[in-house]
Each structure stands twice: as structure tokens, then as C-alpha cells.
TrEMBL record:
<comment type="similarity">
    <text>Belongs to the CitG/MdcB family.</text>
</comment>
<keyword id="KW-0067">ATP-binding</keyword>
<protein>
    <recommendedName>
        <fullName>Probable 2-(5''-triphosphoribosyl)-3'-dephosphocoenzyme-A synthase</fullName>
        <ecNumber>2.4.2.52</ecNumber>
    </recommendedName>
</protein>
<keyword id="KW-0808">Transferase</keyword>
<keyword id="KW-0547">Nucleotide-binding</keyword>
<dbReference type="GO" id="GO:0005524">
    <property type="term" value="F:ATP binding"/>
</dbReference>
<dbReference type="GO" id="GO:0051191">
    <property type="term" value="P:prosthetic group biosynthetic process"/>
</dbReference>
<comment type="function">
    <text>Involved in the formation of 2-(5''-phosphoribosyl)-3'-dephosphocoenzyme-A, the prosthetic group of the acyl-carrier protein of the malonate decarboxylase.</text>
</comment>
<dbReference type="Pfam" id="PF01874">
    <property type="entry name" value="CitG"/>
</dbReference>
<dbReference type="InterPro" id="IPR002736">
    <property type="entry name" value="CitG"/>
</dbReference>
<dbReference type="InterPro" id="IPR017555">
    <property type="entry name" value="TriPribosyl-deP-CoA_syn"/>
</dbReference>
<dbReference type="GO" id="GO:0046917">
    <property type="term" value="F:triphosphoribosyl-dephospho-CoA synthase activity"/>
</dbReference>
Length: 307
């Protein structure tokens, strides 16, 4: 006697509410994916904070060029952002327009300023990492692989036009970065996003992969990536603090470090530390490069194994 492929007749296999069960399961998976995405975002910012030496930037070791900031302040700022990255990932999954992402970012910035007593610790990261979290959320919500190439494609296809319009408003902005970008004719955070984060995908990520492929650690890879970003980016934070002369000095120092071979050189640490001290003495701080480092590490971690 031929055995049936199913032990029970079809009428008993149709479970009432099965569509709702599947929907609930899908929602749970998406929620977990967005939580994981947010965790990677927070972890990436924390990794940037604890990295040392890094020229002019706040770390657990010292405050760099910042008299009004320390690591404790950055930790409070990070804590205030933990829910934002979950929300913006969910928003991306829901295919929302850029205006919704922007409003979530504004709310996150307000919470950050409350947590830090009005000090801007992570405004750039709220913008850049928020967009990348939204792109990752979109991938999770639409069954797409969360790869480097897909993240960039989603970012541009979903919000590229709006980001382009957003970047054109920068000249009338009031932030230091917007004013400096307009004054010196350089790209700020808005222009960087409108171009699909070339600093992340064309500079930071390749350097991370190169150092890791050479057998060195994630710590070494992040230091090398930071210097690579400093060597190639027009950092509005540097221009704000040091003008064009400071920008030239910062770029040359970073290029010198890279020319020596970065962390492959036996005395790389001393070279990086000397650069840090030089930046502190001149009050320079490559905050834009730090934001792009965190974004690069986020994309690398998020898409690990997908490329």
C-alpha cells in the first residue's frame, strides 16, 4: 500500500491562524535583526572610542584635543543612542522616506545633548550610522543580503535623491561642519552621504580588509583605517579647528604614517603616538574621520561573510 506523503489529511494540516503565526515569526526575526544591527552600531562607536593612539581624539587614555570632553561623556552619549539605532533600522525596514529618518535623527541628537549637557559628541555618527542602520534594516525587511555592495545600493536607491537635496541645503546650515564646508568648498557629512559614503566604501573598508588580510588584528586594522581616512578625507572638523594649514598638516602626517607601512612597521605605535601629540599641541581633531571609521567598522561587521 502506497504511503501518503502526509500523516494527516489536508483539512487537519490547515491550522487556524497560521498566517498570523508566520507573520508573528517574521516580525520577531526582523525585531531581532534590528536589535543586532543597533548593537553593531553601538559597538562600532565604542570600538572607535577605545582605540588608541588616534590623533587628537578622545580615548580612554586621554581627552586628545578636547578640553570639554572625556571618555565618560562619550559613554553617556552612547547610552542615550541605543534605542535610536533600533528605531532607525526598523524605519528602514518599513521603507520610510528620508524625512522620517531625519526626524528620528533630530530626536536622537536632542537626547544626546541632554545626556552630555549640550556637548556635541556624536552628531556626525547619528547621521552616518543612522543611515547605514536604515539601509541594513531595509535589507532585513526585504530579504536582501546585508553585504557591503547591497548596503550602498539600498542607501542610494531608497534615499539618494533626498540626500542630494539635503546636501544642497548645507550652505545655509548653522553647524560648524556646514559653515566650514561652504567656506572652503569641501565636502561635509551631507555631501558624503549623498555620494554613498565613498570614504567608507572606497577608503575605510578596503584598508580594514587589507590589514586583516595581512594577518594583523582588528585593532591594527582600525588604526590603519583611521589614518587612511585622515590621509584622503577633507575633514570639516580639522578645517574648523586649524583652517587650511591645519588640514595640510593633518593630511601630511597621516600620509607619512601610511607611507611607512602603517601597523606593518615595527615602530608604528611610536609614529602614531607622535602624530597624536602633534595634533593635541595644535588643537586638531579629525572627528569626521573618526565617524567614518565607526561607519566602516559597522559595515564590515554587518556584512561579515557576505562579500
Amino acid at each position: 500500500m502506497k504511503q501518503s506523503a502526509h500523516l494527516f489529511p489536508a483539512r487537519y494540516r490547515e491550522i487556524p491562524g497560521s498566517d498570523a503565526v508566520r507573520a508573528s515569526s517574521a516580525n520577531r526575526l526582523l525585531r531581532n535583526a534590528c536589535l543586532a544591527t543597533a548593537g553593531i552600531a553601538i559597538g562600532s562607536l565604542h570600538a572607535e572610542l577605545v582605540l588608541y593612539p588616534k590623533p587628537g581624539l578622545v580615548s580612554l587614555i586621554d581627552n586628545g584635543s578636547h578640553a570639554d570632553m572625556d571618555a565618560g561623556l562619550f559613554m553617556r552619549s552612547l547610552f542615550s543612542l541605543r534605542h535610536y539605532f533600533v528605531r532607525v533600522a526598523h524605519a528602514g525596514a518599513a521603507d520610510v522616506p528620508f524625512g522620517v529618518l531625519k526626524e528620528l535623527g533630530i530626536q536622537a541628537e536632542q537626547r544626546m545633548l541632554v545626556a552630555t549637557g549640550g556637548i556635541n559628541t556624536h552628531r556626525g555618527a547619528i547621521f552616518s550610522l543612522g543611515l547605514l542602520c536604515a539601509a541594513a534594516g531595509y535589507c532585513h525587511g526585504h530579504g536582501l543580503p546585508v553585504s557591503e555592495s547591497t548596503l550602498r545600493t539600498v542607501l542610494m536607491s531608497q534615499w539618494g535623491a533626498a540626500l542630494e537635496r539635503h546636501s544642497m541645503q548645507a550652505a545655509s546650515g548653522t553647524s560648524h561642519g556646514m559653515r566650514v564646508a561652504h567656506l572652503y568648498g569641501i565636502s561635509g557629512a551631507r555631501e558624503e552621504a549623498a555620494k554613498g559614503f565613498p570614504a567608507v566604501f572606497d577608503i575605510g573598508l578596503p584598508q580594514l580588509r587589507n590589514t586583516l588580510a595581512a594577518g594583523r588584528s582588528s585593532y591594527h586594522a582600525q588604526v590603519d583605517a583611521l589614518f587612511a581616512l585622515m590621509a584622503h578625507m577633507a575633514d570639516t572638523n580639522i578645517y574648523h579647528r586649524g583652517g587650511p594649514d591645519g588640514a595640510v598638516l593633518a593630511r601630511q602626517a597621516a600620509q607619512g604614517y601610511i607611507a611607512l607601512g602603517g601597523t606593518a612597521h615595527p615602530h608604528w605605535y611610536d609614529t602614531a603616538l607622535d602624530c597624536h601629540r602633534q595634533f593635541v599641541s595644535r588643537g586638531l581633531s579629525p572627528g569626521g574621520a573618526a565617524d567614518m571609521l565607526a561607519a566602516s567598522w559597522f559595515v564590515y561587521q554587518t556584512s561579515l561573510g557576505m562579500e
